[in-house]
Amino acid sequence: MSSMPDSHNEKKGLRSRSWRLSYRTSSTIIDGRPVDMLHDFYIPALQLAVRYDRVAGYFRSTSLAAASQGFSSFVARKGKMRLIVGADLEPDDVKAILRGDAQRLESRLNDELQQPDTWPERVRNGVTLLAWMVANGYLEVRVGFRLHKVTGEPIAFDDVDDGYVHEKWFIMCDEFGNRMYGSGTLNESKTALVLNAENLDVHCDWKGETDRERVEEAIQSFEKLWNGEVPHLPVLTLPEAVHRRLVQFAEGVVQPVEVDGTSAAPMPSVVPPSAMERLKFAVLRDGPRMPGGRYVGMETAPVDPWPHQKVVVRRLVETWPYSYLLCDEVGLGKTIEAGLAFRSLYLSGLAKRILIAAPAGLTPQWQRQMASKMLMSFGRVCTAPGISHDYVFPYTEQRPADSMYEPDLTIISTGLLSRQERVSDLRRAESFDIVLVDEAHAARRSNPTKGTGALPEYGQLYKTLQNELRPKAKSLWLATATPMQIHPVEVYDLLALSNRVGIFQFDPTLTHEFYSVIDKLVREREPNAEEWTFLRRAVSAIRDQDPMLWRFFEQNVIDGRIRTTVNRWLEFGQAPRGKDRERMLRLIFSAAPLSRVMMRHTRKLLEVYRTNGQLQQNLAKRHVQPLRPISFNSLERRIYDQLEEYCKGLTAQIQQHGDRQHRMMSFLLSFLRLRFASSLYAFQETMKRRLQKVEATLRHQRGESVRGAEEERSLVDLIQEYEEDDDAVAVESLLHGRSTADLEWEQSRIQEMLRDMEHLNGDSSKMRELLATLDQRRIGSTSRFKQTVIFTRFYDTLTDIVRRLQHSRPDMRLGTYSGQGATWFNPDSNRMMNVDREEVKERFLRGEIDILVCTDAAAEGLNLQTADMLINFDLGWNPMKIEQRIGRIDRIGQKYEHIFVVNLCYEGSEEEVVYGRLLNRLMQANLIVGTQQISLLPVEPDEFRQLAEGTLTPEELEQRSIERLAQQKQQTARMEIPPEELFDIYRRLTETSSKSAVPVNLEAIWDTLAGSVTLQSAGCVVKRTIDETYMEVNGIDGTIDETYMEVNGIDGIPDGTVLTISRRLYEEGLAESGRRVHFASYGDPLFESLLTYMGQWELPACIRKISVAVEGFEGVEVVGYAVVCRGAGGIREIRLIRSWRELQGITLLEEEAISDHETEVLREQLTALAREEFEPYLAAERIERENRRAARVQELLNCWIVRDLLQVKAGSDVDGAPFWPTLREAENMAEERDRVLISEMPLDILRTYQQHLAYDCTLPSMGDKAPVHVPRFALKAAVDAAKRAAEAMKTKRSELLVSRVIARLERDAAELRRLIASNAP
Known about the structure:
Helices cover 45% and strands 15% of the residues. With 1321 residues, the chain is of the alpha/beta class.
């Protein structure tokens, strides 16, 4: 028991004011006005108290709000409060809860906190104030229950049958031991907040013995209640889930307010940062520009790369501005690799202008990926009505522009990039530091089957890359999962854009011959001496042509077992034998032309990583269920037959308009078939829109529509599935220039189809199959389903699927994710809610959505590894797109050991022929093996169209596929390093790179933020969240404890902003918070604002920032910090801080200052570090020049070799000899002989560039010509060069003479000599 307060405290604490004996809102008058209980009693009293115990009200929003009165004044006192509230529950609920049903208690209490947006403002203020007290540790809440005093049965809390009267009462104590007890009647409404309508009696323990005894009795009663020692009033602690729910109400609150909006809480005062804190934030700001800072971007990104991705990103960054082919298999993350490299080079200042060119339908996906996973703000080019750029990060906006290439970070469609009328824009644009072309296989020749000797007929995209974009790009990255689609020459064409493969760059035949020699080694056949020389000289040339690559070979490819053998081979020509030759293959593969510039990884490599313990995440086993061909019902059959009749009739109508119109008609009808195969609803909607356009054309009210070549490209893109998930292009196509009778015929046929489709009320055959599949995934008798992802090509089909699922399964937890946005089914409001895509993704990963319906237009980069089944509701004509869909759940880190893919299509359709029958036959023949069978189907979208039109039979397609697979298998064996060898190379590389830590990583960022006294004093709070839903959904035992910072009181940042370095928390969000989670890293605008805020305090004299310019790179600098600190033995020491980790354990001498001389000494050290780090970058331009020079030397030698061959074979009749027969004779001679003597080779070129030659030659010391024995592979290259030159002359084959070709070759040789001498681009 407390004793009576002594006389020394008479005017302190609670005793400093005069309190009335009672406060009655009905009768008490203060200063001539009715009493205001909040401002006349609660706030003044709690301003003086340090402890507050209260029994009052119920656990519902209005009661909690009423109980919060005066809390804001309590904050300044750092007081502690305990609150007991009644649980206003039904007796059955109380009985179950007291028996231990904690889930029922949690559920019932949380029900009282639902739909806060419907509460009146005063209630929200009050509950938020109470919640803020809970969140900040000032208040603990417990819940009381009523049992009948006699029977012990649960009863309602306000039941008076046993004589109990529920009152509100409290005890307040100050720091001087003064105590106040107040009690009164409970005047609360169950539905409304009732304030200033209460009676309160007050007893102060310093006013007399009776009052003191009443206070003591109240204290004892409260302690018994709190500890659960009153039998008829059991008290339980608040369930953790309810506690968390309460805390969420306080998120973002800096200064809590009372129910009436006023506040007695003081605003926090900001403590200026210490010298060390200022230095830490300075290092964070400059981390990407410190020594080694070029890797900060990849280490601090919101996405954690897989092992092979880390290697690729490091290679791209450390060898920039080299050009590369990025050719990972589908689903292995080319976008992430490129994005991380972009981020690293951009943050470090090395790359300032970046251009991404992708098929139109992929540009939004690239933009979203760069925003969400790289925190980079790319502008996407739009041209209608004028040039502008769309942005989605940091917020959605459209900015007008004068040029398509105006922003430093730009995304453009490859179609727009390659338009002839837009080339002038590209020519006027500033140069780019990096250009990435996605789906680069689209930059191809139209005649690949003619091989390396044919004059390439390049498409417009390749011409644009070659002639316009390549000269403006320091670095060109070509991304494609299928670099070779039909013939190896396709990938050789991409190789020609690299500027890094020496003699092979412009000579596809020589490249092909090199791989023919490798093929011999793979097949364990012995190359001849000339071929071994070819390999040796090609490998040896890399030492001069690409020293950085050769250093990579020495460190990671040439191990101790073969180092001596390699030296003997390269220096003395001793070809390896036996085991050495087998081991040498790794070097020969790595030095091959494609390997020099192509980084390609397969799923087999991931399996090797996992086998070797380098990949901890799960790699699920994929099961593609047998295709389920679905039969038409009678109505579907009738509509399908009408579609076919429409197609035939429209084809007949259009044929009279010429070949282009006929081709376009073929694409349009293919698209209509795709819509029909997707869903009858999608087809119906397309035909409705088509009818509107036809009728508008008939009325001469048609708006502007696409025409000509642009229209054809758009239709082709629709078939290739690059465009968005609508039909706008199709419904407007092929209307221009048609007759009235023609259009009226189409109008009547569409109207007939639409009349029949009016009867489409029930579920389609395919929809019934989908429902049956989903019903098998229902969890017991509940309304929940195992998580499933459904994909469709078209938004119309998505709409139909969702509508029918809601009709047949109203309680299904649905979500949608498409190019149109995202929605999810809110079980509380029982309706679909429009939200952003990130929220739907987060809710799915947290298990709040069971069935997610997606379109392809938004699927790239979507990680849905919590689902074990994916259903393809339709199957498009691009197998790679189907593989990309499956990759949404078949990901590293998939929750389940096994995943399942279900494909739905109509029986007899082109999809059933390819994805069903053909795939099965190829698998049975062991021509397609592994888990990614669909991606291995060698079928082009155009071949689906040919199947549909009947110009290609299934048997012919099967034969084509068999031939292609055989060729692909051979090329893979020739061109790709085996995954086991690649893993070993990467292992060695990783061991080397892991020794050099980056200056700033995520841990450094978090330690700096979380440990900041300044941020804490401003109101920022570090919090933890334990996501039980995530643990349950992912089968995780224990706890997932995630840390984040709630930012408050910082200028320019909204209070309540959430920052974290947890990649999982960023990906999945905070459950039920409704607040976006920001990733605490470079590029996030609020994180950048935080760095700016902390940068407002100047560095003290003991710290100086040093920056040195990097020679050869405009605007690039390397930064360090000079500091005065206490060294060994306590002596003064000057240090150069190059990274955040170097701050650990140092003590700054804040009273000291750094002199100019001391700074200059450290500047010299920093300059040396910068020179060492960036010197290889300066060599890149010279290396590219040397490689281009070697390529032109090879072209020049081809001219001389074939000129000599033609002269020999034509004999004295050079002027009259026909070219093509003469060339055939020369070609036959090359095939028959191992070597041929070429008598007049240019000695000056041979002598100067002998190290670049593909063969050995002995040169005379005098003269200007030299006889050289040229091996067969070089003769083939020269003959093919002559073929290409002759075809370029556009002369009838029978009329072309040897003399004209020789003249052409001599002109070419002269131009090549000029280019070699000047080494122009």
